[in-house]
Every structure is written in C-alpha cells, then in structure tokens.
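Entry 14. Ran structure prediction on the chain below.
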Amino acid sequence: MVPDIKRHYIRINPVDIDNPQPNEDPNQGMLAIANRPPGSQWQFPAKEIVDAGFLELVRYGIRKPSDRLIVDSLKVVDAILKVDTPLGSCWHRYNHDGYGQREDGGPFLSYGKGRAWPLLTGERGHYELAAGHDVQPFIQAMEAFASDTGMLPEQIWDKPDRPDSHLYCGRPTGSAMPLAWAHAEYIKLLRSVHDGKVFDWIPEVANRYSENQKPTQFLEVWKFNRQIRTIKQGYTLRIQALAPFCLHWSNDNWQTIHNVDSTATSIDIEFVDITISPHHPSTVDFTFFWTDSQNWENSNYQVAFVD
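Output, structure tokens:
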C-alpha cells in the first residue's frame, strides 16, 4: 500500500459471523467487492482495502486527531483515495469500488467505477477542525461541487472532462442529487466551524477514551459466538454470557480450581475477568455452571495465553 507505513486501519475484516472460532487475522482475509465490471477481479486481500471510516473515532472523541494510527491511516487514505480536482480535494469511498459512473462516462448499470464523494470532503473537514487546521478549503470545495442550483451530488466526476457525456472534473456525475447525507454533512461542518469544535464530539466519550485519565486495561473477550483460542500475555480474559453463571476454571490443567460468580451489567450481559501474570505462560480451561437452571454447561473450553 504505502511502503513506509506498516500499520493502518482497513475497511473491514471479513470474518465469518456464523463461525464461533473464525480466523480473525486481517492479513489472511479476502474481501468481496460488489458492482465490479464483468470478468474483473471481485475479491481482494482485506488488508489492502481502505476507507476513511476511522475518522468517526476522532469526531466522537474516541481518538485524538494526533493519534499515530489515525495519522498514518490518513496518509494511506490520501495516497490511495484522494482526488485533486480544479474545484478542490475529494475522496473515493474505498479502493476498487464499483459503484459509480463507468470508465467511458456511461451510467452505472449494475457495475461501474466508484467516484469521489463530496460528503467525504466534509468529513475530512471535521477532522481538520479537530486537528486545529484551516477548514475553509473543505467548505469551499463542497460548495464548488454543487450544481448551479446549489444541490450537492452523491459523486463528482474525477477524471478529465468528457463534454460528450456532460461530465466535467469536479462537477456532478449522474449520481443521486441532491444527496441529503451530503447536505447534512455540509450544514454540520458550518455549525462545527461556528462553534469552534466538532458537532459530533461527545465530551463524556473523549474523557473516557482519548484523554487517558485512566490506565488502559487490555481486554480480550470470549463469548459463545466468538470463542477465541489465544490471548496475548498481559491481557485480561473477559468471559461473557447472556445469563448468570459461576465460572469453573483452572490454569494448571485442573490441579487447582477456581469458582467465580459472574458480574451483571445493565445491558443483560454477565461476565468474569481472568488475569494471569504476564511472566507465567498458561492455558486456561473453563466451563459454566448456570445459576438460574442449576445446570452445568457439559462442555469444557480453553484459551491459551501466548507471547
């Protein structure tokens, strides 16, 4: 992707949601992309498909705009998805997108090529505001992308002009127009600039996640529809279920047994946390005694702590 950047956000990790023990390694998954031209490739390594959805983490206050992973991911997005038009900068949704005007300027008819989306210019403007940068170029670009009657399109043409098809670089394609989502993003950006802060920013969220007022607790969650088999040393193993239980567990092949009652939450999830010394390699065996029915699970489970 970008040789100097080894770690960045990807669009999605395509694990099988029906498999309780899926392969979650994003370096091995393949992502299917719809709306591709007939006969063209439609599956790609998931690690190579990027979008800018991670900017929501900044808008909501979960991550700071200066977060190293955010900054590096933006470099990748700009290298792969950014389009500079005579009217301003715009971005594609994700690479290899097949939803948009065709290469020859023809309309999207079940396949095409994804074009640049003005609303993504607005989302980038919100990031730049959070980072303390000038937002006016993004506002002006969105306004320039609009039709003569002030309607913002879903997508703009991002290639050299094709007068025969009435397509001009930076101007609307034959996509939906007006796109209410784009207009909402534009209005929200104006409001954010007026307020001097991102409208979506949630103080309570920022206080918890990005202000680092509490030590970070590294958790890995085991649940019946995601039965992890390994966990990194130093992490806490959180075992979850949808009913009260007593966790019957051991980390020395059942030579020593621990029984811990689950903790209830306000969202009807019960859990037990297990923390193992990071200097003590271990495998945790466990099963459940269901409090309400007074029955055993009748199955044993295992998670290994690994380097």
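The first strand starts at residue 30 and ends at 32. Will compare against last week's run tomorrow.
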